[in-house]
Every structure is written in C-alpha cells, then in structure tokens.
C-alpha cells in the first residue's frame, strides 16, 4: 500500500510518527521508501499565513496575487492585477502580451475586419512583434477596422479597456476606437519616444490606452479599433495592438442591478446583502460566472471562507482551529461530528477512547497494542496518570537521583535519592566529602575515630591508648581478661573459682598456694609451701617422682615402666591388668544419689566403660579412642569428627560419613525425603544426583533456588543469565543483575545488550573490518571482507591481482581499486569510450561520452540537438552560433535579431547608439548633445528624462518623477481615476467619488466613499467622531488612535468609554476647560458638584463654590461659609423640626429639633406618649410615681408599693431609720428592720506610747 499525504503545519519542528496498530503477537508491519518534501512558505516568500498566501516576499521579489515574482506581469498596476483593482471584476478578454496564444484564441478578439484587399498581406490578422503576438502588425494592418461584439450576461455597472497601440514605422494616419455607438477622437502617433524594432528605418512609437466606461449595464459590448489615413502602401507603415485587456466590473454577489461595487439598487430574491449566513461562504463558479452561498461542510466548522478554510470551530464539541482546519483538541478523538475525550492515559486516540495512537510522554508511558503502558523502570500505581519510578530496579529514570538496588540508607543512595549518613557534613550526589567532628571518611563511609578524645555513640570511653584490659580498649569498656563482672571498665569480681582474684589495681591475678592450678600460669599448686612435695611455689620441685616412671623430665613423668600405664591427670603410673583394661579398685563411697557413671553408684565406684581413671568424685581420665574427658562434668564424651563412630552414642561421624552433622544424620534443606543422611527426593526447583544423593538446583526451570542468581529457562550464553548465574557479554564492562550498563568502545547498549556499532571505525565482535561507509565492493561491506570490483584475487578485502581479462591491468594500492588505462584507445568495461586522445567536446573525453558544450541532447557522444541560439553541424558534430536569432551565445558579442546598423549591435558585434561620440567595445562612454545620457544598463545613449527637455522618444519632460501629474518617466500619464486623458491633462474623471479640479481628479470628501488618499469618509465634518476631513481623527486626549477609533486615553484626569475620551469627574484632578473643580466626591452643596462650582441653594453670593452671603429670611452664614437656619427666631426652615425660641430640653423642642424626655419610649414630633416602666407622662415629661411598686433609682431610695410610713420606706420613698431595703429596678423594694448598734470606744493606755490599748463596747449581742 502506498500512502501520500500533504499536511500543513505551523510549528518549526514538526514530528512525523509512523505507527502500526498491532492486535496480535503474530502481526507485524514495516515501511520503506519514505520521501519527505518540506515546503514552509512558497519559494522566495518571507512571511506567509499558509502555503497558498504569501504576505511578504524576500528582497528582490515582488508580491503578486499572493505569490512572489521577479517582475510584475504586464496586466497589472503596481503588481495588482487589473481584475483585482476593483472588487468583483473579471477579464472579458485577455491576450496579445506573450507568445502563448492559439489561432482560436486570437480569432475571439474580432468578429469582422474591413479592407482585406489592401491589408493582411501575410494572410493572417495578426503578427509577431517583440516576442509576443500582436493584433495587426507589419504587413497586416494600416487601414482597416477590427470589430467585435462581446456578450456580458451577468449584472455589471462598468467596463475597463486597456491596450497599447504601436505606430509602426511612424504610422502617419489616425487611430480611432468606438465603444458601442460612441466614436473616439482621432489619436496620432507620439511626437517622440520610439525606437526602430522592425520594418523600415523609421521608429515604432507606442501609446497606452485606458478606457473606463461607467455606466455600462448592457449585456452587449461592441468595440471597434481602426487605423486609417496614412500611407496607402501597407509596406511603408503599420498599426499593431498589444497588451489587450477588457475587464468587466460586475455587481456585488446576489445583486441584480447596481451603481458600483458598493451600491446595489436591486437584490436577488432571498438576499438583502452580499453576505452569506454565518455557517456559509461565498463561492464563485468561473464557468457559469455566478455566486452562491455554500454551507461549511467541514466537520466541526461553524464559519468559513471556503470549503477548505474554516474561520471558527465548534468549541462546544471540543474542536480547535489549526491552519483553517477544525481538528479535535489534544486528548480528544473524532466520533461522528463531535470530539470525545480519549482514555485518560492516551495522548491521542482514534475511533474509541481506548484505541490510543499516541501516549503522553510526560506520563512516562509508551504505546503497546493501542494501550499506553508504563515505560521500563516505571510502574502504574492505579491512581496517578503519571507512571511512578520503580525504586530498587537498578535503573535510573526521571524522578530518581540514583538506584542502587538496595534499601541501605547510608550507602549514598536511599529511596532512589542521594543520601549520605547523618554523620556526613558535606554530601554531593551520594558521595560524602566531609564528615562531622569525630569521624573520618573510609570508602565513602563516616567511621568513628577512636583515640581523638571525643566520645561519640557508640563509643563507651576514650583513654587515648591501645592498651588492652586497662578499663578502655578500642573505645569500649574493657576489664581484666578473667573478670566476670565488669561495669563501666571497672572490674567488680574476678573468676575466683578458677584461681583468679581481684587486686587493688583493678586487675585479676592468680595466688600461688590457693590449691587451684591455673593453666599456663602455674605448673602446679598443692596448697602448701612444702618444698619437698614435688611442688614448690607452684613449680615442680627437683625431687623426682619416680614411682614406676621410666622417663621423668621437669618433675613430670613422660613414660611408665613396662606393665604400667600413665594416668595423665595425676601424673601417676598405674598397673595394667590386661590389654586395654584398667585395674579398678573398689572403694566404698557415698554420694547420696543412685545415678550411674557419676563416680559412685550403690556405694561403689562407678564410671563409664570408657573411663580409665575412676574416682569417687567421677571420671578423671578417658584414655580410650573415640572418647574425650569433660573436666567440668567429670565424665567421658564421644569425639565427634574423629573418624570413629561410637555406637549408641553417634549415628555417624562427620569425618567419614556424608550428610552428617554433629554426628547426626542430616540432609540438605532442599531435600524433601531424607533416610539416614541419604536424600531420596528433592523439593521443587531441585534435582537429585543419584551418584552422591545430593540435591542441586534445577537449571532452566524458571525457579531461582539455592545458589542460583537467575533462571531464564535457556542455555544461551551472554543473554543476561547463563547456568542460573548473572552473566553479561564479555564486552560488557559494567554489568548489574545480568543487565549491561556500559560496554566496551565500539559497542552500543540496546535492550541492555552490547551491539556492534556499524560505521564507527572500530573493529569489534563479529566485525571483520570497518571502513565507515556502506559502499560495496570496496574491500569491506557491512563489516565483512569483500573484494574490490574487478579484483581477481584478494585477501581480507585487499586486492592482490586485478582481472586483466576484463581490461583492468592497473592496481591502485592506496585506494585498493582496479583501474583501467584511459587513453590507450582500448575501451574497458567501466569506460563509455576511449578515442586515444584528451580532446574535450569531440564525443569522448576522459573515456566518457561527451558532446559539444552547447549540445542539449547527446547520445553516445553524438549530438542530436543544440541549445537555443546554435545550429547543429552534423559533419563536425558540433554546435555553432546563429547570428541574427536574437540570442547571444558563443563568441557573439550581441545579437539583436536584426541587420540594423548603429543600434548597438551589428553582425553580432557591439555597436553604439548613433548619438554616441565615444564607443568602447559596444559600450558608449560619451553621448552627443544636450539632453542625452548613458544608460548604465545597456551602455547606450538615451534621452535624459527629467531634465526638462523633450527629445527623441520622450512625449513630455516635466523635470520630476512624480506619478500621475501628467507626465511620468517622460510619457503622458494621468491618474488612474481619469477617464479621458489628453497629453497628460485629465479632461474627465470616470470613477465615482472623484471630482475634476484643474485637470486633476481629486477625491470628493464627504460623499461617504473612501477613494484615493482618503483614510475614511463619514459624510460629515464633525471633529472627533473618528473621521475629520477624510482623515482618521481622534480626540486630542487619545493616546492610542487606530483608524479613527480610540483605544487608550492615558492622560491624567481622562478615561475612555465606548472609544471616547471623557474627563473623570470625581478623581480629584481638575481638567482645565472641561471641569471647574473636582473635590473627589459626588456630594451636593459642598462647593463642587459634578465638577462644577455649586453652593447651597439659599446662598445669595457664591464665588468659586464658596458662599459669602445668605441674605434670606431666617438664614445666616456660619464660620464655615455654610447657610444655616437661625435657631431661636421662631421660624421653622431648613432642617429645623421646631423652633420654640428657648433652650429648654424637656419641653419637646431642643436646638430646633423635636426632643422628648430621656425616659420617653414613644416620642412623635416632640410629644411623649409613653415612658419607661415606673414612669408616666406628666406635662410631656416622664416622672416617677412614689408608691407604685416600681423602684426608680434616679428619683427614689426605695418604693414598697404604698404610701405608709414606719414600714421601712416612707411616703416619699425614702428609707426610714433603722431599716434596710433591698431594691430591684422595676420591682417593689423589700425592707426589714435592722437597728444599728451603738459603739463605745474607751482608751485604756494612760501614757502615749507606740501602741495603745482600747476597749470597744456594743449595746447589742454579737451574732457570731
């Protein structure tokens, strides 16, 4: 399947993804022959909106119809095509401007011609002139009429006709044109400005015609052109029309009758404007010449300019606009006519939300069978969209600083983040550079320094020495060697039981004479100081103990006499009874138990059979093979591992039996069934070796057991796991758990494997050679030796003998290639030819076919066709130039295609202009006469345009280069708005919106038509409305004015609303000319209101917002220049509620405001209607009533609800003597009798001292 696709992208770095959607493991796909052609903008375009619309061209290029061209076409004005100057214009006729016309096309420009007998001597109605077709021309037209009636079926309002008329050989007659029935004036040849191109020696002079006919609404256009009145002989002079264009200015779309492209008189049925509905676009059918509104059928498109270009997409359905196309938003897919959300893990999807076609790389997912799964080194936690790093897999991925595959927090990496131990002071990327005091760095670890006089955990002490047993050793508490209770480096108790005692220096030492022999410190200890008992000062004495001893050395018997056996414990010689039997002397004993073999059993000595010296305290010696003596237990024990199996005591012996541990049968842990040390069946993952009955790990079962590091179920070496051990390739120099992390030079890691790098120049692995290219037959191809081309014998890619039979006799040892000899006149296989010479362009050069330099079709050294400007000389097989064909080639200096002399080129040699007086190699150095200059391009004399002199072919010369002032570049030229131009002076303006003034078309300002240099035209002369005198115009306060619309007013005191600047009243800033004042508020009568001075309405003298007089009845001015009512004059005005002409508070009016008594609860207009409880209205005042049972503290001391006396509260609500009252506001007082005691004080001290004694007496008894 071949796929071709053209896409538009806006990014500078587009990404092309070719992706297959596999559904089964057996499926596969691939691609080849990928060709990508990149086109940003069009060629030579500097800035474009899309490929089809260029907005700005590169330097040296011009913008024409959204394309960049070197030169603007002839049918354009300032690079604007004639049919694009006025909207809705189309060509009716377009021709005679190049060589691309057919006879049928030419015939469409005329219906009839006149005078065929005296004209058209060539038999045609056209000819050629200056590399283009012309209507008429040399030997064709000088006295005839071309007539044509054109059909214009669609509504229009005007037409434009443009053409150039050439007066050939200075045609002496007149030229006329007729539009419908209107005949033009006669036009004669220009007085100057020509050049002889063809025909006789006279010049060809050209006039440009631009005819704008408005109105023209007829469905027919009749147009005639006529040359007449000249010399009758057509061979003497001629007329020719070129650059012939007729443009129809149609009405706007859907308009059936109009006055211009903007003014429609009658609309088609169903239309009221040229606009289509929002969801449609205007389409023009070039065949039927009709407009129509077509629906925007692009999926998701709401509004559009064309079928391909959408301008607004349906946002509700999740579409977005991109380069004129509606596409789904990222993470959405197209379903019908709407975009639905993809699966949460998809970047993009297709067809359904689970059919992913891309993944979000930031989520660390990749595509696998249409699903986005986590990348290697990440896992899905089922909660987050983003895959999380797998910490501990030895793979360092984004989000991890490191990964060492363990959970040691102090090895530089912990939880996949760089981390040193707490004692590290400076840690960089897991490497400790400095530790805290008391620690040194050892292999990236901070290790305690013992001996630095700093005690840090886990150090227990510091004595700054290495003396053992001195209380502190290696920074740990250490007591004497035989101390059994050591606390903080101080020994509390030594091993007294074994002869060690605590001394004052805190050490454990032996004491000779304590009866305890201390091994390695004492030879003997008999508990006495008798020097003659064989032991003196714990050393054997010189008195030999020779009882039955044959050899006695250093007070010890080394060998007994015959018939005696040495008892090592007592160093005594005892008598043998029989071989391997000991004489047991029965003695009476008692140990208060009935245990056998403890030394005494049933009051007789009893030891094990293996005991060779039995005493009442137990066995003293076990001098039997396979047994050893246990001193602490005083009994014999078997020696496990001595190669002797003691029945009933040992099942086996480790030295001689397999599967024996501690003299007990034991199989491996991997054994499932074990019998007497022999495994009969192994566990899963193990197999039984029948030879040695040992379980070994089963390699290749995918189970990792025992010493296995891995198990990949195959026997392939170097694949990461081999024979159940991690194994990388030999070329891997950094291998972790079977995964290669770094390879030797010449390899690259792919899927944790080292793969040879092709083309790196390093020979490794299976590579035989490396020439860093993919060229075959050069000695090395795809890292394998191959012989060079045409080599007969080669060794390891190096050619030794070339194939002479094929013509290759030479060998280039440096290039390792076989070469043929070119020029030996012998054609070899790799030679096209060999002519035995070294001459270029003779058909064969350097043994390759080669034709003449100017040959364009060469077959096997024979030229078939030459370039333009040359003819083929078949005899000599070369190309020679053609002089006179207008093409400069070869040794021609020039070729103007004529035989005219003094025109700059004659016989294909340079020749200067006839007005040149100094000519060098065809280039004029100096011209003759006033008004001439040298053309710097062609080096010929030409009239100096702009000097004010009219010479040669100049029609005019006004001394400037201003366009449309009547003369431009020395040719008559009126404004393009001029409909009738005579010798540079406009006689009539033919375009709506223009007025003729002094021979010029001036825009008519105020007609609501924007033409010429007008920026706008709103039909009025109102300033600051956006357009003033046809120029964009905003207010002076506008600081950002664009096309008459103000967007910003950044002047203090001004703001903008609806694009209009207005002063901000209330900002505290006075805008002169617009505001009298601005006090920053909207309060009336404060001196300034709505930014105008304002006093109170009663003010009779107001100046700049300040009142100086209130000359009205009842008013007076205060110290703050405010009019206030006169309170107390008996007149109620202003804000006065009353005026009782006094200043009493409780009379209903106080300070001219209605005021009631302070205890009034219902006050209206100064009249109190009710008071607080306990008070009543009297004379408009709230007064209390004594005896009503409501205690009022302000007026009463008590109120017991009656007017009785002698009950504690009298009739005047006063507390009576010897009574106390409990008062509660708003309630009745509670009074009770309480007579006060009389107190009498007597001073007992008669003399005045620092203290005095007094006596206090009461006339009442004390209560407590």
From TrEMBL:
A Pfam family recorded for this sequence: DUF4215
Q: Which domain of life is it from?
A: Eukaryota
State the UniProt keywords alphabetically.
Answer: Disulfide bond, Repeat, Signal
For the keyword Disulfide bond, the answer is yes
All copies of domain EGF-like, residue ranges: 40-69, 348-388, 415-447, 474-509, 523-574, 720-755, 850-880, 907-942
Q: Does the keyword Disulfide bond apply?
A: yes
Its protein name is EGF-like domain-containing protein
Q: What is the lineage of its organism?
A: Eukaryota, Sar, Alveolata, Ciliophora, Intramacronucleata
């Amino acid at each position: 399947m071949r796929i071709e696709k053209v896409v538009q992208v806006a990014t500078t770095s587009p990404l092309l993804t070719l992706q297959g959607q596999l559904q089964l493991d057996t499926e596969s796909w691939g691609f080849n022959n990928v060709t990508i052609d990149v086109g940003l903008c069009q060629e030579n375009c500097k800035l474009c909106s899309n490929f089809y619309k260029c907005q700005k061209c590169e330097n040296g290029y011009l913008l024409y119809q959204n394309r960049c061209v070197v030169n603007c076409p002839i049918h354009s004005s300032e690079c604007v095509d004639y049919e694009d100057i006025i909207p809705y214009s189309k060509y009716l006729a377009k021709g005679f401007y190049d060589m691309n016309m057919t006879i049928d096309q030419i015939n469409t420009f005329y219906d009839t011609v006149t005078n065929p007998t005296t004209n058209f001597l060539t038999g045609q109605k056209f000819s050629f002139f200056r590399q283009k077709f012309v209507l008429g021309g040399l030997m064709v037209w000088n006295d005839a009429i071309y007539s044509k009636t054109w059909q214009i079926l669609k509504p229009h309002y005007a037409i434009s006709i443009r053409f150039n008329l050439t007066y050939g050989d200075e045609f002496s007659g007149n030229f006329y044109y007729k539009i419908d029935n209107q005949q033009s004036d006669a036009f004669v040849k220009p007085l100057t400005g020509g050049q002889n191109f063809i025909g006789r020696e006279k010049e060809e002079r050209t006039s440009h015609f631009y005819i704008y006919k408005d109105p023209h609404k007829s469905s027919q256009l009749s147009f005639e052109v006529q040359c007449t009145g000249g010399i009758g002989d057509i061979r003497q002079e001629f007329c020719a029309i070129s650059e012939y264009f007729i443009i129809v200015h149609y009405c706007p779309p859907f308009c059936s009758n109009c006055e211009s492209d903007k003014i429609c008189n009658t609309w088609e049925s169903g239309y009221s404007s040229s606009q289509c509905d929002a969801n449609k676009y205007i389409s023009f059918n070039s065949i039927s010449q009709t407009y129509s509104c077509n629906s925007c059928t692009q999926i998701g498109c709401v509004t559009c300019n064309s079928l391909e270009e959408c301008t607004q997409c349906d946002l509700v359905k999740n579409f977005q606009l991109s380069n004129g196309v509606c596409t789904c938003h990222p993470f959405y897919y197209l379903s019908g006519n709407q975009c639905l959300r993809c699966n949460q893990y998809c970047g993009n999807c297709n067809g359904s939300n689970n059919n992913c076609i891309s993944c979000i790389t930031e989520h660390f997912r990749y595509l696998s069978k249409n699903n986005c799964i986590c990348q290697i080194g990440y896992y899905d936690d089922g909660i987050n969209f983003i895959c999380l790093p797998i910490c501990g897999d030895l793979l360092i991925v984004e989000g991890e600083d490191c990964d060492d595959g363990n959970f040691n927090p102090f090895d530089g990496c912990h939880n996949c983040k760089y981390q040193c131990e707490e004692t590290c002071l400076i840690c960089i990327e897991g490497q400790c550079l400095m530790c805290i005091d008391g620690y040194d760095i050892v292999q990236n670890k901070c290790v305690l320094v013992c001996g630095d006089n700093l005690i840090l955990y886990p150090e227990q002490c510091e004595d700054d020495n290495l003396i053992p047993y001195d209380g502190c050793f290696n920074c740990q508490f250490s007591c004497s060697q035989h101390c059994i209770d050591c606390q903080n480096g101080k020994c509390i108790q030594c091993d007294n039981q074994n002869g060690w005692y605590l001394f004052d220096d805190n050490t454990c030492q032996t004491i000779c004479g304590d009866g305890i022999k201390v091994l390695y410190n004492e030879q003997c200890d008999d508990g006495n100081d008798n020097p003659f008992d064989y032991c003196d000062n714990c050393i054997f004495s010189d008195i030999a103990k020779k009882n039955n001893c044959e050899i006695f050395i250093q007070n010890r018997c080394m060998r007994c006499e015959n018939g005696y056996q040495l008892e090592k414990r007592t160093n005594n010689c005892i008598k043998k009874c029989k071989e391997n039997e000991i004489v047991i002397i029965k003695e009476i004993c008692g140990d208060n138990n009935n245990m056998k073999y403890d030394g005494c059993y049933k009051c007789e000595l009893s030891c094990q059979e293996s005991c060779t010296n039995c005493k009442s305290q137990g066995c003293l010696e076990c001098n039997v093979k396979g047994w050893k003596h246990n001193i602490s237990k005083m009994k014999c024990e078997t020696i496990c591992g001595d190669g002797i199996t003691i029945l009933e005591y040992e099942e086996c012996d480790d030295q001689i039996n397999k599967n024996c541990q501690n003299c007990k049968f034991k199989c491996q842990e991997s054994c499932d069934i074990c019998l007497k040390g022999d495994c009969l069946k192994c566990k899963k993952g193990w197999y039984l070796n029948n030879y040695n009955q040992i379980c070994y790990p089963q390699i290749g079962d995918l189970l990792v057991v025992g010493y296995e590091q891995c198990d990949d179920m195959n026997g392939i070496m170097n694949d990461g796991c081999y024979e159940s051990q991690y194994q990388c390739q030999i070329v891997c120099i950094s291998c972790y758990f079977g995964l290669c992390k770094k390879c030797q030079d010449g390899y690259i890691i792919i899927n944790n494997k080292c793969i040879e790098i092709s083309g790196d120049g390093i020979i490794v692995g299976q590579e035989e050679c490396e020439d860093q290219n993919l060229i075959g037959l050069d000695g090395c191809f795809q890292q394998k030796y191959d012989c060079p081309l045409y080599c007969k014998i080669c060794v390891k890619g190096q050619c030794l003998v070339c194939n002479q039979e094929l013509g290759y006799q030479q060998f280039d040892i440096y290039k390792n290639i076989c070469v043929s000899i070119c020029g030996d006149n012998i054609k070899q296989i790799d030679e096209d030819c060999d002519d035995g010479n070294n001459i270029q362009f003779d058909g064969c050069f350097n043994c390759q076919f080669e034709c003449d330099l100017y040959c364009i079709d060469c077959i096997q050294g024979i030229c078939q066709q030459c370039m333009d400007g040359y003819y083929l000389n078949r005899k000599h097989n070369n190309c020679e130039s053609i002089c006179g064909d207008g093409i400069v080639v070869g040794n021609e200096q020039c070729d103007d295609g004529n035989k005219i002399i003094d025109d700059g080129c004659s016989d294909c040699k340079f020749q200067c202009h006839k007005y040149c007086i100094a000519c060098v190699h065809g280039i004029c150095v100096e011209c003759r006469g006033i008004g001439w200059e040298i053309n710097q391009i062609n080096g010929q004399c030409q009239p100096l345009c702009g000097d004010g002199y009219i010479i040669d072919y100049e029609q005019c010369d006004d001394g400037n280069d201003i366009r449309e002032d009547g003369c431009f570049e020395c040719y008559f030229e009126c404004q393009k708005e001029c409909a009738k131009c005579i010798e540079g002076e406009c006689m009539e303006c033919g375009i709506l919106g223009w007025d003729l003034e002094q021979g010029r078309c001036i825009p008519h300002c105020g007609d609501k038509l924007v033409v010429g240099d007008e920026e706008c035209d709103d039909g009025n002369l109102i300033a600051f409305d956006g357009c003033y005198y046809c120029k964009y115009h905003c207010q002076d306060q506008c600081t950002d004015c664009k096309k008459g619309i103000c967007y910003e007013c950044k002047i203090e005191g001004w703001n903008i609303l609806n694009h209009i600047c207005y002063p901000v009243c209330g900002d505290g800033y006075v805008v002169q000319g617009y505001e009298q004042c601005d006090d920053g508020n909207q309060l009336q009568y404060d001196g300034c209101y709505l930014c105008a001075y304002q006093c109170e309405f009663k003010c009779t003298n107001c100046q700049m917002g300040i009142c100086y007089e209130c000359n009205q009845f009842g008013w007076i001015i205060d110290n703050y220049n405010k009019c206030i009512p006169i309170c107390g004059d008996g007149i109620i005005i202003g804000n006065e509620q009353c005026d009782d002409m006094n200043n009493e508070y409780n009379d209903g009016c106080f300070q001219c405001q209605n005021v009631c008594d302070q205890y009034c609860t219902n006050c209206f207009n100064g009249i109190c209607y009710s008071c607080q409880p306990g008070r009543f209205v009297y004379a408009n005042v709230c007064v209390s009533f004594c005896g009503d049972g409501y205690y009022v503290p302000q007026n009463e001391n008590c109120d017991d609800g009656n007017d009785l006396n002698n009950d504690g509260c009298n009739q005047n609500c006063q507390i009576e003597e010897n009574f106390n009252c409990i008062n509660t506001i708003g309630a009745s007082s509670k009074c009770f009798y309480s007579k006060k005691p009389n107190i009498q004080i007597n001073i007992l001290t008669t003399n005045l001292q620092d203290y005095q004694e007094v006596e206090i007496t009461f006339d009442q008894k004390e209560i407590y």
